Amino acid sequence: MTKWQIGQALMFQCFWFTLVLGQNRALPVALLLIGLHFFFSPTKSADVKIMPIAFIGIGIDLAFTYAGVFEFASWPIWLFVLWFGFSLTLNHSIAKIGQFPTPAVALFGGCFGTISYLAGWRFNAVEFPFGLFTTALILATSWALLLPSLFHLDKTLRRRINASATH
């Protein structure tokens, strides 16, 4: 990993903890951390153009919220902002994961995506009305499909961005 990737990984962990622990109250700090990403990123322009990838995760989390899988004390704007920060990791701090075969990426997503939400639950950022086991199964299945798809979309968009920049 490069110094940038290590720094970006540490910054994302700060970002995650800031939002999960502070929730909507932490939005100014989270936006500052996104600003720091763009200040240091070697691919600023492309990063801006791929950020709409976050809307996929936001849509899934909204669907889970409306279906009753998630329950929040207040409207979780922080969770939506978290998706924008996560979209920025795909080509940076977690990019190496996307280079593995799809089944390995799916396994990684199923495990660690689920763990992230379980940690949020342990920090009282979200409730699981369907129970821990059922919610974990839903999350593991979703993330096993989602993470390889997000990596594929990120790579496809960046290829198009790079191709249009050279023409």
Give the secondary structure arrangement, pairings included.
Blueprint: H1 3-22, H2 27-40, H3 44-50, H4 54-66, H5 77-87, H6 102-122, H7 132-166
What's this entry about, in short?
With 167 residues, the protein is an all-alpha fold. It is built from 7 helices and no strands. Helix 1 (3-22) runs antiparallel to helix 2 (27-40), helix 4 (54-66) packs antiparallel against helix 5 (77-87) and helix 6 packs across helix 7.
Brief descriptors of the model:
167 residues; mainly alpha; 7 helices; 72% helix; globular
Low-confidence stretches: none
Nearest-integer average pLDDT: 96
Helical fraction = over 70%
Taking all Cα atoms into account, the compactness measure Rg is: 16 Å
Outline, from the CA principal axes?
Answer: globular
Roughly how many Å apart are the termini?
Answer: 31 Å
Given the helix and strand composition, which structural class is it?
Answer: mainly alpha
Total count of strands? 0
Residue share in β-strands: under 5%
- What's the tally of helices? 7
The biggest beta sheet, please? none
Q: What is the element string, with H for helices and E for strands?
A: HHHHHHH
